[in-house]
What we know:
This protein is mainly α. The protein contains 17 helices and five strands.
Amino acid sequence: MSQDTLSITDNRTGKTYELEVTDGTIRAMDLRQIKVDESDFGLMTYDPAFTNTASCRSSVTYIDGDKGILHHRGYPIEQLAEKASFLEVAYLLFNGELPNRTQLADFTQEVTMHTFVHENVRTFINGFRYDAHPMGMLVGTVAALSTFYPEAMDIHDKENRRLQMVRLLAKMPTIAAWSFRHSQGKPFVYPDNDLSYTENFLAMMKRVGDNKYVADPDIVRALDVLFILHADHEQNCSTNTMRAVGSSHADPYSAVAAATAALYGPLHGGANSAVLKMLRQIGSVDHVPAFMKSVKEGTGGRLMGFGHRVYKNYDPRAKVIKKLADRVFDIIGTKNPLLKVALELEKIALDDEYFVQRKLYPNVDFYSGLIYEVLDIPVDMFTVLFAIPRTAGWLAQWEEMLLDKDQKIARPRQIYTGQSARDVPPRDER
Ligand code: CMC
């Protein structure tokens, strides 16, 4: 018997089956042959939330959750954060290799040339209520972009696909900044194509009137590093959404809008703003023990920014962000007073049996909000700042899915738990 197989004996029938094991997995469809009799549908797996199901083969991102390791296309996240720019990382995610100087210059030029949006986009962003959440505006506006580029439906044409990928990457900061400006009641600032990707985003957020806002280069770099840290994270909730929606061959704008909606939730990208709200609510270090007690007793909600489906160790991105926070606080010349509360929460959690036993460590969202806050970015924008760079990962994973011969329209099975067949009674007999 070959070593890379799994023998299963079905005790209902006494039959034994041999299934192939490849890359530490068995194919769920191989279970279907296991039947009690010919009329039986065949064995399925039950895996709500996909906690133990590989939904794809991917060469984009590697995570070892136990060791706290994150690589993109083989490169450790720590090195990318130190030595690359966000656009280099986006290129890497799209193409599998880091760009050389010419490739980077061409890619940067391409992205820069697509930062403008159709004037009508302005009109409908203006149509949102004055207090609309920027994530809601982002989801709606990105979905609407599909109506401006109907050719995007031709997802099988590589050149066309690549054009839409560049467009999306380029336009996300513009739409994000405009959503922010709308919520502030400030006029929209057009992209400035003399600026870098990150600088341009900051300028569109911060410029007032003719005032040429010039961002501190260290702050630009800090935000660029934050973008790198958020660029991709393999099969998370929003990426899974991107792949699932994309698997129906919807256009990439609709799929990115859906992925953005998935990111919005507080258990995913919405955690960064939830952390800051939590820190504000705790208020000071002396309130930390009581808060931690309430989390453990289940009355105070979750410790936001802690825990991860995959990491059972310190999230490597959180380590980089923690250092980055210190650098940003030095540049700005002020520390976020909530940092003390965050440090105390972390100290207690890392030592507390409840958190240790469940392997709950700080994740990427725990410290990022503290940086955004000293950069004067309002809390409601935090998740938008996650969505901009994650667009690179969504698109890389989307294209990989489209080119994967194993993939089909995503369509899980269910275990039906409802009524068996019955007749509809007349209305006066119900
Ligand atoms: N605070 C307190 N308890 C927690 C937390 C937390 N943050 N996270 C998990 N637990 C407990 C949970 O109650 C459960 O305990 P028990 O076994 O007694 O029922 C146990 O730990 C396992 O939790 P789970 O919900 O089964 O774990 P999961 O893998 O389904 O959830 C998670 C992962 C990230 C949704 C969760 O840890 C969480 O809600 N964290 C807070 C929100 C957050 O920070 N999200 C950002 C994630 S990283 C960036 C991103 O994905 O966008």
